[in-house]
Design goal:
8 helices; alpha/beta; Rossmann fold; Isochorismatase_domain; 12 strands; 292 residues; 2 domains
Amino acid sequence: AEAAAAPGGGGCSPAGGGSVPVLFCFSVFARPSTVPHGAGYELLIQKFLSLYGDHIDMHRKFVVQLFAEEWSQYIDLPKGFLVSERCKVRLVPLQIQMTTLGNLTPSSTVFFCCDMQERFRPAIKYFGDIISVGQRLLQGARLLGIPVIVTEQYPKGLGSTVQEIDLTGAKLVLPKTKFSMVLPEVEAALAEIPGVRSVVLFGVETHVCIQQTALELIGRGLEVHIVADATSSRSMMDRMFALERLARTGIIVTTSEAILLQLVADKEHPKFKEIQNLIKASAPESGLLSKV
């Protein structure tokens, strides 16, 4: 979903306390709820998804609108809008249907490496294999000039990214406590990269940080590719159901080889031989893909 910026304000009544009543409207539905005081676009989108997720077609783009008393109608959500008082918002699907084709080009792609940290090594199933595949993906990103964003979940307690993963040239390596990788610093880094359309996402855990990151990214209108042979969890059941859920929302579940060959696209690509050599050095069959 994406919000269009427009000047103007909303018709609202003051509300005190730490939360603010908001009426969320979508199609024929209207449901009162609350959001924290100071909530912005991101939290409004999350609330819409929690209330109407079963009815929202993620292959469409949306605009969020605010009811403005001064105009007696809805206006596009003002840029930088924060909820400070009671108000009414609605999610409006644009008329153009967006088909998820899954095309990848180096110039419009970013790689996200999520929490591949030392303390996860004994707990995550097939962790050695996803390290090997993650290495290959990051080597491919360097060869093709694709920006890489890396996060580490509470590194003070969980350690840094494993030594086998070479972070040379990464655009951003960021500690976090939030499960999703979509932090203000990450959003700022994405804004610095012109024409970003697709995110290739891998790491741990599939049902927690990977899932929450993917849902936030598609909520911002980005296309997400999750690399099935480079993501895992402590439980294969958690991993399997997370991938199934994400695939139903329009996220593309794929493999490292498919990603790398899609990015070069042609045997005549100047980096094809080097990418081919990366693929030939494949990790052994781990059983991960039989549990997608």
